[in-house]
Amino acid sequence: MCISSANDYKIALVTGGSSGLGKAAAIELARQKVAVFILCRDEISGLKTVQEIQTASGSPHISFFTADLSSQKSIHRLVDQIFKELPKLDILIHAAGTLQPSRISTIDGLETTFAVNHLASFLLTQKLLPLLRASSSARILVLSSRAEELGNIDFDDLQMHKSYSAIKSYCQSKLANILFTYELARKLEKTKITVNCLHPGLVNTNLGRNLPILIRTLIWCIRPFMTHPSRAIEPVIRLALDPQFEGVSGKYFLGTQEGKSSPKSYDPVLAKRLWEMSEQLTQSL
Ligand SMILES: NC(=O)c1ccc[n+]([C@@H]2O[C@H](COP(=O)([O-])OP(=O)(O)OC[C@H]3O[C@@H](n4cnc5c(N)ncnc54)[C@H](OP(=O)(O)O)[C@@H]3O)[C@@H](O)[C@H]2O)c1
Question: What is the DSSP letter of 227?
Answer without folding.
Answer: B
